[in-house]
Amino acid sequence: MYSFVCIIRIMMSWIPNLEYSPVGRFIAGLCDPYLNWFKRFSFTRIGMVDFSPILALGLLSVGSMTFSTLAATGRITLGIVFAGILQVVWSFFSFLLNIMIVFLIIRLIHDLVSRYSYSQFWTMLDRFLNPPISKITRLIMRNRTLSYRASLILTLLVTVAVRVGLAFGIHYALILLYSIPV
Question: How many CB atoms lie within 10 A of CB 66?
Answer without folding.
Answer: 16
